[in-house]
Amino acid sequence: MTDWTRSTALEMAAALQSGAVSSVALTQAHLDRIAAVDGPVHAFLHIDAEGALATAAAVDADRAAGMELPLLAGVPIAVKDLVVTKGLPTTAGSRILEGWIPPYDATVITKLKAARMPILGKTNMDEFAMGSSTEHSGYGPTHNPWDLDRIPGGSGGGSAAAIAAFEAPLAIGSDTGGSIRQPAAVTATVGVKPTYGGVSRYGAIALASSLDQLGPCGRTVEDTAALHEVMGGHDPMDATSLDEPVPACLAAARDGRENGLAGVRIGVVKELGGDGYQAGVLQRFAESLDHLRVLGADIVEVSCPSFKYALAAYYLILPSEASSNLAKFDSVRFGKRVERDTIEKTMLATRAEGFGDEVKRRIILGTYALSAGYYDAYYGSAQKVRTLIQRDFAAAFEVADVLVSPTAPTTPFKLGEKLNDPLSMYLQDVATIPVNLAGIPAMSLPSGTAPEDGLPVGIQIIAPAHEDARLYRVGAALEKALVAQWGGPLASLAPELEVTP
Amino acid sequence: MSTLSRADVARLAALARIDMTDGDLDRLSGQLAAIVDAVALVAEVAAADVPATSHPIPMSNVTRPDVVRPSLTQAEVLSGAPDAEDGRFRVPRILGEEA
Lengths: 501, 99
Prior knowledge:
The complex is a heterodimer. Chain A has helices spanning 9-18, 23-41, 49-64, 107-114, 157-164, 181-187, 221-231, 249-259, 279-294, 310-325, 343-354, 357-369, 376-399, 422-426, 433-438, 468-486, and strands at 44-47, 77-80, 119-123, 170-174, 190-193, 214-218, 265-269, 298-302, 402-406, 442-449, 456-462. By secondary structure, chain A is α/β, with parallel strands linked by helices. In chain A, strands 1-3-2-4-6-5-10-11-9-7-8 form an 11-stranded mixed β-sheet, sandwiched between helices. In chain A, helix 2 runs antiparallel to helix 3. Chain A starts with 8 loop residues before the first helix and ends in a 15-residue tail after the last helix. By secondary structure, chain B is mainly alpha-helical. Chain B contains 3 helices and 2 strands. Chain B has a two-stranded antiparallel sheet. Chain B starts with 5 loop residues before the first helix and ends in a 10-residue tail after the last strand. Classes of the chains: A alpha/beta, B mainly alpha. Chains A and B meet through helix 10, helix 11, helix 12, helix 13 and helix 15 of A and helix 1 and helix 2 of B.
């Protein structure tokens, strides 16, 4: 019997179309896999078996009736708990939203429903997407399927781990400073942060509004491309949504896989490597560059000197925006309330009890950065850094069609290792943050395992704004070469998880 | 730029409406001071003659047609509230004893 959970999403779509499998069987297989492995992995905060199976049954009935259906109809998906889902609990990983049932759907959920994809459940994350390890979830950490003692990355560790553990073929993530790409890197999966505005943020619980972007997660570049096309597009409900066609991601991926990369100029960012990067990470990155050369690409070195300010600017802009966005959790309209005799004391007590330490740290940091007397020196300078970083990227894209770097400086670290050292945790995102500050698109895909620890390493591909399709062309070409070298997709080479009968 | 003191953190927490115990302040103020010291690096560009960027992809005057559309019902809006009465959000009294 075929174990459908090991197939790609596009293989599942083809099997559904040919009648080789039903969506109910496919969805049930994933629910069974979740029941078997999610105890120790803890990728999910909420599982909606009933809703997923009802969508699957409706898809099967419509297909049997001869109705024409979207490409991914009947293929199940997991959704980061940052995205609001009508009738399904949504916590954003925070105790302050425990038990909240949203009264509306985010635009991406409306799109998943139009695409007829069964939603398996909501995935774990760092509280309000603040973190790089999922350890800041109010509901306990997610564990990396490659080694359960290690972090699955963050903030979207739940979505990445669900895919890596074959609990779902696809997932929705969100990326403010690397929260899709770094988890993808450390779990040997693929994740894309689209151009800012490429995917509607309506119904995505805001962390830092000028940096946040929802994006697709999958096990292959082509699967991720197919989901990107489902998610993308203009939305009048989001004033920052781009009014332009969805990029042709799937066609670009197929072009790259079939035709290679002759004439493509690839820039290696000098500042994103070297000191602070693990030896095995750099070794796999160098090997990927060799593959890209063989595929016909021209490799050039580019320099982005302002990147040295990126982390500092990010940890001023993000907390500033977050401190404002999180003011809405005031115990009045939704979520937790710790009742006291006045509203002000109620807010003080509710926010003290409802927020975890990392959220408190960032709210206080943001309140500080925005306070009179410090605003120009901190927030104003950080905004200037943003301009300088955009200029660095613009200069680099004069000589290169895409840029590449390692996604994360290390392989996944041990749970608890950096929990009391926030600054060292923040360094996980040193290579991904400049992309968010500039609003441009980027992908992480597996580049192998580090020889010293056998754990996954990712390579990041960066494209100019609106050129998301380039990520898929280059990513699919590189993936094909790497899979041929490994003898199969990296995710399939992960150690088997112990299964609960 | 000076580093962040324990008293600063207590004042900022009050501004952000987060109660902090002595234990919270002990734990968080050292970490916050270290973070503030690290992000102060941006001061190196304070004098740079470049415009500020607040939004990565510039857009202006984004509007939609001014037409009435369906919206959430009052009951739906109140469904997630900790407390409601007569179709409104209900909160504890807004003035303290001294008022």
